[in-house]
């Protein structure tokens, strides 16, 4: 007979009543800052590894530009999207997620896809991945998820048991797991993969009318992927394969490009759409909300120094411009805090003043001092607000649009829990050859797990997505096929 587990506590020893759902105003938020357990987890998590990034440590970057190809002013007042033909300089950082700074480029892992637009209204960061969904949908689970992707605290080895234990207890991960284990799990290069904003964002036009949007960067080079065998060979022979490929292609004048599309959803549709549009583990059907072209991104210049540009580049989904706002997506709400906080600890309180992060537009604020303050620090100008000495003032026209919220402050889950339909649809869209490779990859990844209960629980999720999916994984592992419910 085993002893009951001890109570989970905060860092100050208080028992935690809910470690699955952050405290929000109603089921769609926004997340409340009174959730001190969430803030404690995220803030501590951001400081766990120094000095490399906690996640997305291994990456490569390049400069380029974005050119508008369609008039989207009916949807957003963002100045850099205001007219066809307009070009905006940008910087992009591609990365793996879980590995350390010296890890191989060709591991099976999502790829970060972060874009910094240097607009005339300040910087705009679009911080996404090469997948349209993510493993979890509430930021309170993010530190735990990433812990499973890192090394065991005793052996210092990767831990498949932790990975599959967490996934099997978090069925919302199934859609992303299916993508990760499919042919799309290892891109051939950074140039041959799509990019996604993943989250839902809000566009607001000059009249104050809003729509929900999702971003899709479609590679113009075509999608190409690596098999597991080739990826493993490259990891041993050239662990910097993707970094080298991106640099060489630009150096040789073969400039990679992506076409940016958005899906547009009327605000009122969010109340009735069959999937919660703010759940980052779900996609919107392109039959319901077709892709609309916005512009074209081209990368045409390599960094002159890796550290000062790629390593010190800081991105946050909270780096916004007028006309682009956030949604009640709980994962996005947590990232608004966590990303900027990570940069303040890793690079410094003045990270936005570094050349790679500094806006091209004029910066006027009352922030002073802090480590590594290397400019004039505001000189002798007025250093508080409000003031009657001519200092910069707010511009009411640039206030974000209002968003109604209601509900009881509580640790509230999303009110829809269909984690299987979209994963099953994806499986059924695959060819027989793609399904076979998917199952083989999953079986290989799960075999090192010694706990049969974990394997059975995960097989059950595959089975609920599609019975054939579950049966084939079970057979590959030599385990019983789940009983139909």
From TrEMBL:
Keywords: Heme, Hydrogen peroxide, Iron, Metal-binding, Oxidoreductase, Peroxidase. SMART domains: Catalase. Its cofactor is heme. It catalyses: 2 H2O2 = O2 + 2 H2O. InterPro entries: Catalase, Catalase_3, Catalase_AS, Catalase_clade1/3, Catalase_core, Catalase_haem_BS, Catalase_immune_responsive, Catalase_sf. Heme binds at residue 339. GO terms for cellular component: cytoplasm. SUPFAM superfamilies: Heme-dependent catalase-like (SSF56634). Residues 9-393 form the Catalase core domain. This is Catalase. The gene is katA.
């Amino acid at each position: 007979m085993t002893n009951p587990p001890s109570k989970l506590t905060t860092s100050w020893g208080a028992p935690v009543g809910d470690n699955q759902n952050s405290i929000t105003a109603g089921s769609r938020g926004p997340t409340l800052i009174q959730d001190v357990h969430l803030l404690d987890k995220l803030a501590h998590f951001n400081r766990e590894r120094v000095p490399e990034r906690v996640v997305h440590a291994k990456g490569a970057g390049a400069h380029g530009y974005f050119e508008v190809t369609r008039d989207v002013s009916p949807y957003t007042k963002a100045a850099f999207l205001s007219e066809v033909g307009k070009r905006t300089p940008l910087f992009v950082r591609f990365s793996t997620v879980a590995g350390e700074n010296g890890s191989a480029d060709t591991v099976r892992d999502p790829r970060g896809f972060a874009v910094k637009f240097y607009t005339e209204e300040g910087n705009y960061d679009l911080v996404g991945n090469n997948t349209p969904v993510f493993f979890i949908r509430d930021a309170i689970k993010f530190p735990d998820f990433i812990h499973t992707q890192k090394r065991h605290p005793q052996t210092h080895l990767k831990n498949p048991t932790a990975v599959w234990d967490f996934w099997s207890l978090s069925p919302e991960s199934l859609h992303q797991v299916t993508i990760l284990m499919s042919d799309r799990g290892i891109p051939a290069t950074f140039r041959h993969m799509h990019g996604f904003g993943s989250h839902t964002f809000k566009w607001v036009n000059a009249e104050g009318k809003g729509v929900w949007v999702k971003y899709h960067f479609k590679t113009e080079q075509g999608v190409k992927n690596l098999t597991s065998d080739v990826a493993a060979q490259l990891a041993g022979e050239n662990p910097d394969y993707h970094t080298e490929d991106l640099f060489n292609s630009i150096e040789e004048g073969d400039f990679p490009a992506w076409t940016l599309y958005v899906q547009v959803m009327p605000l009122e549709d969010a109340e009735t759409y069959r999937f919660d549009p703010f759940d980052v583990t779900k996609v919107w059907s392109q039959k319901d909300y077709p892709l609309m072209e916005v512009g074209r991104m081209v990368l045409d210049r390599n960094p002159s120094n890796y550290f000062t540009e790629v390593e010190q580049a800081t991105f946050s989904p909270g780096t916004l411009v007028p006309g682009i706002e956030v949604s009640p997506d709980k994962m996005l709400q947590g990232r608004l805090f966590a990303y900027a906080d990570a940069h303040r600890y890793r690079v410094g309180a003045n990270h936005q003043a570094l050349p790679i992060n500094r806006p091209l537009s004029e910066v006027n604020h009352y922030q002073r001092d802090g480590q590594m303050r290397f400019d004039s620090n505001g000189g002798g100008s007025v250093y508080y607000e409000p003031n009657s000495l001519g200092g910069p003032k707010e511009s009411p026209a640039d206030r974000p649009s209002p968003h109604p919220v209601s509900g009881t402050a509580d640790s509230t889950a999303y009110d829809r829990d269909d984690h299987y339909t979209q994963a099953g649809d994806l499986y059924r869209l695959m060819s027989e050859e793609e399904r076979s490779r998917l199952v083989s990859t999953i079986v290989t990844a799960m075999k090192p797990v010694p706990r049969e209960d974990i394997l059975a629980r995960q097989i059950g999720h595959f089975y609920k997505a599609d019975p054939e999916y579950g049966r084939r994984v079970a057979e590959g592992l030599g385990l019983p096929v789940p009983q139909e419910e």
